[in-house]
Amino acid sequence: MAGGSEPEAHDTNVSRTERTELSGRTLRKLERASGGLATASITAMEDRLTWFSRLPADQRSNILLVTQTGVSNFVSWLQDPSESIRLTAEAFRAAPRDLSRWISLRQTLEMVRTAIDVFEQQLPDLAEDERERILLTESILRYTREIAFAAATSYAAAAEARGAWDARLEALVVDGIVRGDTEESLLSRAAALGWEPSSEATVMVGSAPSDDPPTIVYQVRSRAARAGRSVLLVVQGSRLVVVFGEASDGRAVRDPASTIAEAFEEGPVVVGPTVPSLAEAHRSAEDAMSGLRAVVAWPEAPRPVASEDLLPERALAGDPEAERLLVETIVSPLNEAGGTLLETLDTYLEVGGVLESCARKLYVHPNTVRYRLRRISEVTGRSPSNPRGAHTLRVALGVGRLARSRGVG
C-alpha cells in the first residue's frame, strides 16, 4: 500500500509544478473563454449527437450548467491541481438528481468525448507558446479522465439507489401477496418493477440459503433466468418467498420450479398452485404457506413439492382449505360416480389393499374390484394401490365423514 502511494504523490507534485508555470495571461484568457467553451461544446453536441437535439429545452439547459461547471473547474484545477477530484465531482453534483434517468451513461460519455474534442481544438490557441500548448493538451487529457470517472461513479451511485428502491418495492409487493392484499396499489407496484399483472403467477416458499440478501437475490434471479421466468422475491427472516411468472420468451421449460428450487436452502420447498394473474397470487401463497407448515408430516416429500400433494398433511394440521379441496376433488366425485365406488374404496383400504380380500368381503369377482379401482383412479386422480394415493384417499374419506357429521357438504 505504502509503495503504491508514493508514485501518486510524486506525480501530483510534478503536475503542480508544471501547471504553476502557466502564465497569468494564459490563465486570464482561459477564464474569459470558459463561457464560450461551454457554449461551443453544447453546439458541437447538437451538431454531432442526433439524440441531443430531441431533448427538451430544460434538459439541455441542465447539461449546459454541468458543462459550464466543468469548464470553470478545469480552469481552477489548472491553478490548484490538488482540488481536481473534488472539482470534477462537483460538476456532477450540480446536475439535477434525475439526470441519469433521461440520459444514459453511454450518452453522457458521448457528450464528454464531444467536449474533449472542442477543448483540444480551442484551448491550445490560448497558450502563449509551444510549451504551454503541450501543457494544456496534457492537462485536458488528465482532467477529462477524471470527468469520465466522475460520470461513471455518479451513474453507479444512481444505479445503486434505484436498485435499493426497487428491492424495497419488490419486498412490499411480495409481502402484500403473502398477507393476501388484493389492492390496486400492489399491481401498480409490480408493474413498476416490470411485471406484467395479467401474467400467470406461482408462489414457492422454503428456507433462505444464507444471511446475505444480495447473494440470495443473485442465486434466485440467475436460476429464474435459466428457466426463462421473471421473478419477485423477498427474504422474511429465515424464509424465502419467490413468485415466478410464465415463460416470457416462449421457451418451453418443463419444470421451472425445480430449477428455481436450487436457490433455496436444503430442506422442503413448497410450490403453490399457478393462478391466472398476480391479483390472485395470494391464493397460491396461502396454499404454499400452509404446505410449508404441514410438510414436516411427510419426511419423504419430493423437493419441490406441490401444495396440492400435501392436502392430507394440511388437513391434519387443521387447514380448512385443504379439507374443502379433499371433499371437492375426491369425496364428492366418488359420491356422484355411484355408491359402489365409495364402498369399494372404503373396503379396499380397510383390508390393507389386498384385492382378493376386498372381493370376498364385497361378494364380487376380483376383476370387478380391479375395474372399480381403475375407475376410482380416473375419478379422483389418486390410485388406491399406490401408498401415497391410498393415504390421501383415506384422509379424504375421514374428512368427508367429519364434514357430514357437522352438517357441511
TrEMBL record:
Keywords: DNA-binding. Residues 1-23 are annotated as: Disordered. Residues 180-294 form the CdaR GGDEF-like domain. One of its GO terms (molecular function) is DNA binding. Residues 7-23 have a biased composition (Basic and acidic residues). Belongs to the CdaR family. This is DNA-binding transcriptional regulator, PucR family.
